[in-house]
Protein: tRNA pseudouridine synthase A
Amino acid sequence: MSDTQAAEPLAEPAAEPTGLNRWALRIEYDGTGYLGWQKQNDGTSIQGLIEAAASKLVRNRPVPSITAGRTDAGVHAAGMVIHIDFPDDAPIDARQIRDGMGYHLKPHRVVVLETAKVGPEWNARFSATWRSYRYTILNRPARPGLMENRVWHIKRPLDVNLMQQAANHLLGPHDFTSFRAVACQARSPIRTLDVLNIHRDGELVMIDTKARSFLHHQVRNMAGTLMMIGSRQWPVEKIIEILEAKDRCAAGQTAPPEGLCLMDVGYPDDPFNCS
Structure:
């Protein structure tokens, strides 16, 4: 699953074994050059790096991980949440996990930000109630220098007011078939967008969105469509026609992965909130 996707979070997780030494981790990473979150037979993935670093803390014993969402190759994360299960006989504390994994993750652009001990019933994927993303467009004639691999470069001027007018039509529950990848494996195309805000900060146009879960490529497909409207190639009303078509071919292009960043994941009881 991807953009990141929650892989049908409404389903009930399988029963968890008791006695796990389970920890929640909040991590950030630059997805450039990696295959995305999920382990692959060939190439470097974020999951592979995380599990290898954790394993080194317990004498190379296996340490499985579960993520709140699986990101595609090239997609970044500022606040991804995962859980990892250390062997139940391995004494370990929060500082050892953060600093020890941080050491073993070098020189990769993957960092453990926070750690929290959680119960065996807590699940990074199924316990989450929302995910938020930001898609960033660099809107200027000159190509990116400092922000290469972090933005989508659009030369044509974008009208963020038109983009927001169109985005408002996507809020709430809808059939997002027109915005899902053809290969999407989700059982239902129905999703509920709680937030879809577009704003400009100088040369940057940011698209912020939040929902319980997203379809495969949904955020990037929405960004590609909103770009067409912001550049005045399509009228605002086109967004209604696209939704009603329930056809991927009706919407805009899939925006490139480098502009997308998972910002945060929400839980009813935030394991990282110590107050």
